[in-house]
């Protein structure tokens, strides 16, 4: 980093420039305002004497645990179809046998992201005859170089999966409020941690659960009505000083 001061006609070198920025504000005090999941777990443990436990049926599909499925070597698509095909939650969220076989199982078995070619001859999500996942409608508009890979391990100096959630202060007004957020190490959290977040009262924070499903009888118009309701409930929760909003699809089923 280099700064050229045209008014003073001086050049400020890297170390001096960073020291000036670091000393300009009480950054160390601001960082103490950060909230982490460990803080929420500790508070929950003190209040309820135990961390929440999850029902077995949440982590299983058709009575066959994910771990058991992952332990089967050489499993083919037909076997997966018999094992997973009867679970209506897969079709409800647009997951296919191909997604499970080519993406999820390799990650479960090897703890690594599944590898594949960069080419993709599948039609765009907006032109698909099926109902693709919501994520498939978004494509990156830049050329990504894969060597070195963009990941939080080999490039942790410049890249991180950390996700701050909660009320966001004005970026143009530096202050401690910008640090007073819940910092997640990555965007995916366990079912146990989501229950901890739901029940949190740490630093007087509270969360609001908003149902994002709608009745099947309402038909296609029900989606528009549900979106309006979700927006209204979210705005009302923000006005009532809820720091965290949880959009829940737990009520989804045959009729929702």
Please outline what is shown here.
By secondary structure, the protein is an alpha/beta fold. It has helices at 14-24, 27-31, 37-48, 66-70, 77-84, 88-92, 97-110, 191-198, 221-239; strands at 3-5, 10-12, 35-36, 60-61, 64-65, 163-165, 182-184, 207-211, 244-248. Helix content is 34%, strand content 11%.
Describe the overall structure.
With 256 residues, the chain is α/β, with parallel strands linked by helices. About 7% of the residues have low confidence. It has a domain of 43 residues. The protein has nine helices and nine strands. The strands form four sheets. A three-stranded mixed β-sheet has the order 3-7-6. 34% of the residues lie in helices and 11% in strands.
Low-confidence stretches: 56-73
How much is the radius of gyration in Å? 24 Å
Distance between the termini: 55 Å
Number of helices: 9
Count the strands?
9
Give the percentage of residues in beta strands.
Answer: 5-15%
Which whole number gives the mean pLDDT? 82
Task: Give me the strand/helix succession.
Answer: EEHHEHEEHHHHEEHEHE
């Amino acid at each position: 980093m280099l700064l050229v001061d045209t008014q003073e006609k001086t050049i400020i070198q890297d170390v001096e420039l960073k020291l000036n920025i670091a000393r300009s504000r009480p950054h160390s005090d601001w960082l103490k305002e950060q909230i982490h999941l460990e803080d929420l777990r500790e508070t929950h443990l003190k209040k309820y004497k135990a961390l929440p436990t999850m029902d077995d049926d949440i982590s299983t599909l058709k009575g066959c645990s994910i771990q058991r499925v992952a332990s089967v070597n050489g499993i083919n698509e037909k076997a997966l179809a018999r094992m997973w095909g009867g679970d209506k939650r897969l079709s409800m969220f647009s997951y296919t046998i191909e997604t499970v076989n080519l993406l999820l199982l390799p990650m479960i078995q090897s703890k690594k992201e599944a590898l594949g070619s960069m080419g993709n001859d599948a039609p765009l999500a907006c032109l698909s005859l099926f109902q693709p996942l919501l994520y498939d409608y978004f494509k990156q508009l830049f050329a990504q170089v894969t060597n070195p890979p963009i990941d939080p391990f080999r490039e942790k100096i410049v890249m991180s999966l950390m996700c701050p959630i909660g009320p966001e202060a004005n970026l143009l007004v530096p202050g401690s409020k910008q640090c007073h957020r819940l910092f997640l190490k990555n965007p995916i959290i366990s079912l146990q941690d989501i229950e901890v977040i739901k029940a949190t009262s740490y630093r007087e924070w509270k969360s609001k659960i908003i149902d994002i499903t709608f009745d099947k009888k309402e038909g296609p118009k029900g989606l528009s009505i549900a979106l309006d309701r979700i927006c209204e409930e979210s705005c009302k929760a923000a006005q009532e000083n809820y720091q965290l909003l949880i959009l829940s699809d737990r009520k989804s089923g045959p009729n929702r």
